[in-house]
Write a structure and sequence with these properties.
Layout lengths: L2 H14 L4 H16 L3 H17 L3 H17 L7 E3 L2 E2 H5 L2 H6 L6 H17 L5 H13 L3 H13 L9 H14 L3 H13 L9 H6 L1 H6 L3 H15 L6 H13 L3 H11 L10 H20 L28 H23 L3 H7 L1 H5 L11 H8 L12
Antiparallel strand pairs: 1-2
Helix pairs in contact: 1-2, 1-3, 2-3, 3-4, 7-8, 8-9, 10-11, 14-15, 15-16, 15-17, 17-18, 18-19
């Protein structure tokens, strides 16, 4: 088989394989073959696929590397390195993910984040594309950085702007708007938006699992504890095998803490703590998850579990997390270490963002831990079975 034919076969196989380790292995094989042949246009096709693969499997470092390489080649020769290979492999679409990847790293400066947004907007203008995707990227960025008034203005503009070929997923936008409403003290509106999302069947790879999870604490506070229990179970069933859904797992862990579902919460820690190590470049998601871990440990300690060993906590010894300072993995010392990590990382984000929003989230853990609601969930058969059959969590793709 000729090198060109083998690459055609690999590309076809990649495009038909779900994102994950097998698909990523095929991408790396195609990339190697193209480089061996000295065929830069085919290398570009492989790198475009690598960008998609890295983003969808939670490998931010590889995503940024691949995207930058492809953007540079396209800028140098648009005809030789086209922006769009097919309906699923498109530089304009990949650029929508860039600002979020930058804002999730507290080491990225405000200027770098704004530069990513300007690059995206300029690319869309040069290629005569609609601006809905740019507006959404600006909404997400200002929200993540605590610029809530600016985010609210972008949210209004998004609602007024017709959807186009590069609009973000409708289900994701609805979920994010609901979460933004929760985050800005409009819980009733956020719950109504979530109910509407679910009732009207808005779905994608992440939704409605993430929307249901984000609504759990507001649902408990609204006194709808039985519904919250059902939403917890439905959300978890949808995302328990998806490491990119760590934010949903964090919200489910909070539900366990506030309903006194300790055995289920410990089982979630056992199964999902290793997920925190898979994408060390996504520090924002790590912080969100570690806040939930801290909350659960505070509640567990208050309920007499201070000396209980946390199975799975060894994953937190990763350099991007607690590292050599992990120490004993019983609830009480682990709670101290996790809280300190959260405070330090929150301070890094706040220094970059020019506010104290992340520090306030960390400080609110103790008050939230004092809330208690009915609707406990047991370590049900689905979770118990998954734990019994658990295989080791694979390393991130760029570590293979």
């Amino acid at each position: 088989m000729s090198q060109a034919s083998e690459l055609d076969r690999l590309f076809d196989q990649i495009d038909r394989t779900p994102y994950g380790p097998s698909e990523r292995s095929l991408v790396e094989t195609a990339l190697t073959r193209a480089r061996e042949a000295g065929d830069e246009p085919r290398e570009f096709e492989a790198m475009m696929r690598r960008t998609n693969s890295a983003k969808m499997s939670g490998d931010t470092a590889a995503f940024l590397e691949s995207l930058r390489w492809c953007l540079d080649r396209h800028a140098a020769s648009p005809s030789r390195f086209p922006a769009r290979l097919n309906e699923n492999i498109d530089l304009a679409w990949q650029l929508k993910w860039l600002p979020g990847a930058r804002v999730a790293d507290p080491g990225a400066s405000e200027q770098e984040i704004d530069g990513a947004l300007r690059s995206m907007e300029r690319f869309y203008e040069e290629h005569d594309l609609g601006m809905a995707g740019v507006l959404t990227a600006r909404f997400r960025t200002d929200w993540a950085m605590g610029r809530l008034d600016a985010a609210e203005r972008w949210r209004t503009r998004i609602a007024e702007t017709p959807r186009d070929a590069y609009s973000h997923c409708d289900a994701c936008i609805r979920s994010e708007v609901a979460a933004f409403l929760f985050d800005t003290d409009r819980a009733a509106e956020g719950l109504a938006a979530t109910v509407d999302l679910v009732a009207n069947g808005h779905e994608c790879a992440d939704e409605p699992a993430l929307a249901l999870a984000r609504a759990l604490v507001p649902m408990l506070r609204a006194g709808r504890c039985d519904e919250a229990r059902l939403w917890h179970l439905r959300s978890y069933e949808s995302c328990r095998e998806e490491p990119t859904q760590l934010r949903a797992i964090a919200s489910q862990l909070e539900h366990c803490a506030l309903t006194g579902s300790l055995e289920r919460g410990f089982a979630l820690l056992d199964r999902h703590l290793p997920w925190l190590t898979l994408d060390p470049s996504d520090v924002a998601t790590q912080l969100r998850a570690m806040r939930a871990v801290a909350l659960f440990l505070v509640v567990a300690e208050s309920r007499g579990q201070a000396t209980r060993k946390v199975t799975g906590a060894e994953a937190l010894a990763a350099p991007s997390l607690l590292g050599a300072s992990l120490g004993p993995t019983a609830v009480a010392p682990l709670r101290t270490a996790v809280r300190e990590w959260c405070a330090q990382v929150a301070a890094r984000f706040d220094a970059r963002n020019g506010n104290e929003r992340q520090a306030r989230h960390v400080a609110a853990i103790d008050a939230l831990a004092r809330e208690s609601y009915p609707g406990a969930v047991g370590a049900d058969a689905t979770l118990t079975r998954a734990l019994a059959n658990r295989e080791p969590t694979p390393p991130p793709p760029n570590a293979r």
